[in-house]
Design brief:
Elements lengths: L26 E4 L18 E3 L2 E3 L9 E5 L3 H10 L4 E7 L4 E10 H13 L1 H33 L5 H11 L11 H4 L3 H15 L3 H6 L4 H20 L17
Parallel strand pairs: 1-5
Antiparallel strand pairs: 2-3, 4-6, 5-6
Length: 254
């Protein structure tokens, strides 16, 4: 039964697998549900091509002679695509992200063999390059963490040095997707640095985590601890304003 015009697509139903950057190559889908070819009725299909909204098997789509190369080896993937006269991008629908994501390539078997030979021929050179690149990234990350920690110290002079370094290391972890890896974080914007410090205070200096574990909704938990977070931030912003009076002594007493 056709869906009425303007009706919303059911949750989890894949959209058309159009991928930016596919370069016009055919797109092949790893289906999440049992599908059969609309032409030859074979199935359930492990891989299919959507033509005019209906599934077709690889043989009916003239892609049955290709072999699957999983993602993971960038050099092999690039060279297999270069060697293959015909290739296709393999995708799978990620429900949590609401989009299709690449799983690998379909390439000609002979092209894959040639690509593997090329990779074997310069494997040692590429390994040395990976080691150099890894060392460079480590040095860059250490320098960035130090800069991030220094900016925390500038904005929050009352923040202990060890804490500032820990906040910077957590926020700037490569591949984490945290605020330190955002464009604003890399630019050391005040908003990004403050956000990283607030997150640390929220988790380490308030009962926020316990509230979450007890079933309190996240937004409500944040409202409950907002005052405590702001007090800590204010103490770190203006440490000179917080004078500590020794027990048994009055201010001004010699």
């Amino acid at each position: 039964m056709a869906r009425p015009a303007g009706a919303r697509r059911p949750v989890g139903e894949p959209r058309s697998p159009t991928l930016p950057g596919a370069g016009g190559a055919p797109v092949v889908v790893q289906p999440q549900r049992r599908k059969h070819c609309a032409a030859c009725r074979q199935g359930p299909l492990a891989l299919l091509v959507l033509e005019d909204g209906v599934p077709r098997c690889l043989d009916c789509a003239d892609l049955g002679h290709l072999v699957f190369l999983p993602r993971g080896d960038a050099a092999l993937t690039r060279r297999a695509r270069e060697e293959s006269a015909l290739s296709a991008v393999v995708v799978r629908f990620a429900r949590r992200r609401g989009r299709y994501e690449r799983q690998g390539l379909l390439v000609e078997e002979a092209a894959l063999a040639r690509a593997e030979e090329r990779c074997l021929a310069d494997a040692e050179v590429r390994q040395r390059r990976r080691v150099r690149d890894a060392r460079r990234r480590v040095a860059e990350d250490e320098r960035f963490v130090a800069e991030f920690a220094a900016e925390i110290g500038r904005l929050f002079p009352g923040c202990p040095d060890g804490r500032a370094r820990a906040v910077a290391g957590h926020a700037a972890l490569r591949g984490s997707g945290r605020v330190g890896r955002s464009a604003a974080g890399r630019a050391l914007s005040e908003a990004a640095v403050t956000s990283a410090v607030m997150a640390s205070v929220r988790h380490l200096d308030t009962p926020y985590d316990r509230l979450l574990m007890s079933g309190v909704p996240r937004r409500q938990a944040r409202e409950r601890i907002a005052g405590a977070v702001e007090r800590v931030l204010q103490e770190w912003r203006e440490p000179a304003a917080r004078e500590v009076v020794e027990p048994g002594r009055e201010q001004g007493e010699e």
